[in-house]
Amino acid sequence: MTQSFEPWNTSISNADADHLWIRGHDVTELMASATFTDTIFLLHHSRLPTAGERRVLDAILIGVADHGPGSPSAAAARLVASGSRQAPEAAIAAGVLAIGDVHGGACMSAMQWIADALAARETNATMETVAERCVRESLARGERVAGFGHRVHREIDPRTDVLIGLARENGIEGDGVAFMRAVERELEKLVKLLPLNIDGVLAAVLHDIGCSPLFSKCLFIIGRVAGLSAQVAEEYEQERPMRIRIPVRYSGPAPR
Fold first, then answer.
1. Is the pTM here over 0.85, yes or no?
2. What distance lies between CA 95 and its chain's CA centroid?
3. Residue 63 burial by CB count (10 A; 0-12/13-18/19+): exposed, middle or buried?
4. Helix axes 213-238, 72-83, angle to 10 degrees
5. Strand, helix or coil at 122?
6. Each residue's pLDDT tens digit, 103-151
7. Could you tell me the residue ranges of all domains in the chain?
8. Quick one: 50-240 is in which CATH superfamily?
9. Whole-number Cα distances in Å, 104 to 98, 149, 219
């Protein structure tokens, strides 16, 4: 008996003997006239970005590309590269696997928080009123407000004003940015100065573009792979194999 299988359905790409299309756009035409950022946006949103959206997305990809070898993703990549000298794909994959809810995932949480807050906004309620309610609710539940505070940039994340400025210049700045700025002010009044960080500003700007929370995390991964590839290459080129040895202190029972 012949068993039949349902075909996979996709609206992303298609090909024949002479052509390859992404969302209906011929790849050879994209290669000649589009950018990689255009293609990322096209793959996820079924349309090419505007010039302003492209500029902001370029800035985001640059901003998340690399934060040094001490970040969890880069440290994981270099640790695997230290013991696997002919498999850069494994080392880079290890770095990607270190991205999660704490490292690289705050933007996704912040975007969902923005969407929920603005969806519940009452008619004629000021952004300050909405922000105050959301902050007080989060504090009452003992939750950390995603997108604020930074272990290095204590007073201001230098990338924040750049991204908001680009969003403003290109007509993208909207309620997402306004809400997160209002939250920043409320946190300073109710808790302490916790600057809007790269995750928070990414969430605000991508919300105003109309992206989904899932896309924000995918965009972080795409950008960070560029940095991970450089971290792995440097590990191979400059360091000895097995050079990363983590100190271990035994704290179990004494030998029997």
1. yes
2. 14
3. buried
4. 40
5. coil
6. 888 899 999 999 999 998 888 899 999 999 999 999 999 888 888 876 6
7. 12-48, 50-240
8. Cytochrome P450-Terp, domain 2 (1.10.230.10)
9. 9, 14, 10
